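Slide 14.
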Amino acid sequence: MRRMITTVSTLIIMLFAVVISDRSQTVSATQERSRIQAGAFAIDITPTKFPVSVNGSMIDRQVSEVHDPLYARCLVLDDGKTIVGLVIVDSCMIPRDLCDRAKDLIQKKTGIPTTSVLIAATHTHSAVTLTGVFQSEPVEWYREFLVQRIAEGVEQAYRQCESAKIAWGVGRDPTQVFNRRWFMKPGTIEPNPFGQIDQVRMNPGFQHPGLVKPAGPTDPEIGFLSVQAKDGRPIAFLANYALHYVGGVPGLSADYFGAFAERIKQLLGAEQVKPPFVGILSNGASGDVNNVNFAGPAPGKRQPYEQCRLVADSVARNVFAAYQEVAAKHRDDVSLAVAERDIELGVRRPSEADLARAREILAVAKGPVLRTLPEIYARETVLLAKYPPTVQVKLQAIRVGEFGIAAIPCEVFCEIGLEIKAKSPIKPVIIIELANGYHGYLPTPRQHEWGGYETWRARSSYLEVRASEKIVTTILALLNEVACPAGTPSN
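Slide 15: predicted structure.
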């Protein structure tokens, strides 16, 4: 019996040793562990079956062409006490249930706590539908596929963790961001889908005679984390820019987010490094910001994907200039901290009168594809009536050294992001939107009063009017939780 117990104990020790060895297979046995370890991996999430639904428009698109691959770009950081997984996915939006399932699988594969994983969509409008919005409904097989691939990507990044050093900073590029919501002269805005007249119009057209002024600000900052191996080899570069997708791409595409990943790789001279370098661009508070200057003349015709490349090059070159100022400041004495919280928010569900009007509109609509905005929003009204009166919304804050990350599961209006940046106890701080779920647009109460597409009640915009105030309060509390005490270093 004693021999049997000894044999079992030996087997357990051997199995544990195999796990530890597997985690560190890319690190030399004699390499001294630094205070921070990091690993990165970009896993291909391009669908394997076609056609697939692509959302982001009022009418569903069925696509069979791939312009450029889609990826889940994964970064794992470990300071010996806290471990963090960051995943930026080439998707328009990712629902909460899918994020939660992927996190559960990541924890099973790696031991990284679900509370320490951030999963966010880039908001490319050329990716596979994962959640129902307007006339696009989720591709079920792809949802299952994506959960597995995200977990596999984080697992590989985890296995590649090695002694590392990190630097951070902020670049600027004001040339690519424009607020897309405009105040218009009286009489120049047609009734919205509910028969009301708004004060603000989204995407009004180039040099429209009714233009008055933009209804909100822009944020030119490009916050970034640079992650290197101890010998200076680039491991990953995470940037954040408050700009909607660019578009103009046939077929599936990672949009300018993917083009940025390739361009920053070139600028850093990381095209041939092993393990492969991972460039990552996350989306900031860009719910009302795009790449179109309506105050100016219409630009000339672009070739497919040309605008994506131009925007990506501009953003990459500007953030690379900022990176060069801190390149010599990479540190290995970097600590991590994470906090998250669920808050309950109300849902703007339709009234019985709203439902009756919607059903009347749908009764005379000529389907199956709805073509007018009143018809499309009537369908959204019927579907939104099935929502619960409240929803749980996950908010998250992460600190990497003296660099902050605020994660919000909405398309966040730019002024909200600027408020968080101004009030944050951690500076610099970036806002990663569409993170850990999807709860539609997040306007301020004042923007709700002005109206416009982003406020129209639908599955794309349904949180209570004062949701932004509650979210900002909670995010700032979470940032305070993870912030270093005054006067103490991040290590």
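Speaker note: Residues 350-384 form one domain.
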